[in-house]
């Protein structure tokens, strides 16, 4: 049996960093509270010396400056479920083990993908890069798991035929056995798998029973445990992260429209209907918000599904700031008694031409979408980057929606009353000849308060630039065009 192990280390921390990029460079501890006890389940890379299983008090004694986060296990498992769904699109024999670990049986798929190397690469590229997956390939599950552990991020390691030699230098802590057995092995001076493999099977059975026998077999690369495939759910799942957290209904509907367009553009949805949609919103604070929508007679198009979801969301939608949206189409059928949403729109041919142009341009841009449509979501908002979004015209694109006017950090030399005198741009200082306009706002009531002072300045060459000072962190930004 040829098997690949896909491993995502520190999945919880990576998910939290995805939601809050600023955590990447600061120590943070993720907790699980159970039975009145707080236990560490993960930590960011900066929290060195902190390990899963530690009590909170012990972890804070090592890293007292660490930020403490409440774990959201349901969200972590939802992210991993999407990983498993992606793997099921490659192989029908996928097993989900503990959070962050999956096994894929490869036998018979090499010819389909043009060789083992391309097959393994397909597994790696099916997973979002920010999760930094690793892959190990071997003739059994345990050697494949160890190979994944020693792989570099976004890389794969292949175990040669002699698995015992590969495993010999690895620590016994990798064995899937009880903590008591691992401690006992270390106590007897058996620190690496080669030490265990050098013992006789009978001696380990005499001392540790059935678990000792299993440790001996695994240390020699002998693992006959089968792949237990997951049930292949007939669902379509699409997900996107918002460029900024918001409670705006207009923004949420724009994102839902984008996810529906992606879902119905999939080849597997051609001529098919969805009987149900499930919308899940990960909130900045509080539990995940979820709602199910039923389509009477089935929805065979984006427009039909959107009309139902929009009507229901206008009656009630998340009140807290949304960070991530997941849309699942369920109860898929091949036909429907009603033909709603099948009439072509007048401008459909124009949309198709734009998509064709975009796909042609993407050949020269390395796959990056070239054409977007602008959608207003909060035209009243004082922060320009929150007024509108750019959405790819090609609904099959995996690119995220993005703001149209993102602030760009810039170095500013301040003068009297902290007003800008010069800014450093393109590695040179540009002096401000005059300030044409000044204004500001203080949105102190938001979950992430915004307090800014804006300046529309004119340079010595007559060029106009809009700068603002973030009064909460003291940094300067240039408002993007």
What are the key terms here?
globular; 4 domains; MutS, DNA mismatch repair protein, domain I; Dna Ligase, domain 1; five-stranded mixed β-sheet; 22 strands; alpha+beta; 481 residues; DNA polymerase, domain 1
Break the fold down into its secondary structure elements and pairings.
Elements: E1 3-7, H1 11-19, E2 28-34, E3 37-43, H2 56-62, E4 67-70, H3 73-88, E5 94-96, E6 101-105, H4 110-113, H5 116-125, E7 134-138, H6 141-150, E8 156-158, H7 163-167, H8 179-187, H9 193-198, H10 201-208, H11 210-219, E9 236-246, H12 249-265, E10 273-283, E11 289-299, H13 302-315, E12 322-333, H14 348-362, E13 372-376, E14 388-392, E15 402-403, E16 407-409, E17 411-414, E18 420-425, E19 428-443, E20 450-459, E21 464-470, E22 476-479
Parallel strand pairs: 2-4, 7-8
Antiparallel strand pairs: 1-6, 1-7, 2-3, 5-6, 9-12, 10-11, 10-12, 13-14, 14-15, 16-22, 17-18, 18-19, 19-20, 20-21, 21-22
Helix pairs in contact: 10-11, 12-13
């Amino acid at each position: 049996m040829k098997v690949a192990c896909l491993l995502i280390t520190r999945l919880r921390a990576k998910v939290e960093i995805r939601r809050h990029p600023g955590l990447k460079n600061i120590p943070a501890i993720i907790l699980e509270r159970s039975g009145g006890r707080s236990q560490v389940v993960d930590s960011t890379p900066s929290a060195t010396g902190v390990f899963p299983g530690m009590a909170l008090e012990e972890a804070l004694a090592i890293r007292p400056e660490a930020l403490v986060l409440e774990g959201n296990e349901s969200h972590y498992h939802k992210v991993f479920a999407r990983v498993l769904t992606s793997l099921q699109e490659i192989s029908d024999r996928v097993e989900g083990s503990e959070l962050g670990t999956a096994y894929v049986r490869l036998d018979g798929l090499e010819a389909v993908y043009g060789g083992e190397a391309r097959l393994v690469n397909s597994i790696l590229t099916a997973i979002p890069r920010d999760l930094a997956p690793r892959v190990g390939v071997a003739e059994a599950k345990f050697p494949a798991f160890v190979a994944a552990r020693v792989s570099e991020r976004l890389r794969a390691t292949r175990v040669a035929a002699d698995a015992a030699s590969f495993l010999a230098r690895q620590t016994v802590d990798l064995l899937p056995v009880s903590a008591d057995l691992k401690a006992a092995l270390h106590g007897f001076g058996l620190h690496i798998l080669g030490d265990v493999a050098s013992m006789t099977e009978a001696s380990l059975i005499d001392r540790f029973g059935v678990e000792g026998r299993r440790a001996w077999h695994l240390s020699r690369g002998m693992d006959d445990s089968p792949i237990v495939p997951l049930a292949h759910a007939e669902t379509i799942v699409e997900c996107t992260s918002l460029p900024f957290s918001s409670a705006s209904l207009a923004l949420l509907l724009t994102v839902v429209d984008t996810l529906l367009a992606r879902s119905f553009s999939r080849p597997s949805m051609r001529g098919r209907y969805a009987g149900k949609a499930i919308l899940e919103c990960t909130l900045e604070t509080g539990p995940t918000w979820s709602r199910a929508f039923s389509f009477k007679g089935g929805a065979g198009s984006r427009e039909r599904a959107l009309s139902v979801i929009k009507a229901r969301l206008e009656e009630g939608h998340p009140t807290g700031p949304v960070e991530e949206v997941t849309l699942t189409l369920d109860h898929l059928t091949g036909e429907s008694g009603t033909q709603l949403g099948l009439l072509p729109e007048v401008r459909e041919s124009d949309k198709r031409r734009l998509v064709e142009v975009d796909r042609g341009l993407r050949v020269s841009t390395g796959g990056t979408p070239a054409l977007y449509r602008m959608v207003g979501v909060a035209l009243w908002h004082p922060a320009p980057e929150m007024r509108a979004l750019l959405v790819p015209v090609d609904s099959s694109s995996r690119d995220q929606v993005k703001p149209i006017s993102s602030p760009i950090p810039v170095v500013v030399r301040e003068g009297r009353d902290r007003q800008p005198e010069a800014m450093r741009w393109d590695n040179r200082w540009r002096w401000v000849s005059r300030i044409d306009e000044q204004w500001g706002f203080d949105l102190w009531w938001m979950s992430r308060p915004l307090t800014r002072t804006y300046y529309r300045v004119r340079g010595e060459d007559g060029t106009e630039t809009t700068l603002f000072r973030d009064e909460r962190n003291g940094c300067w930004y240039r408002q993007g065009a």
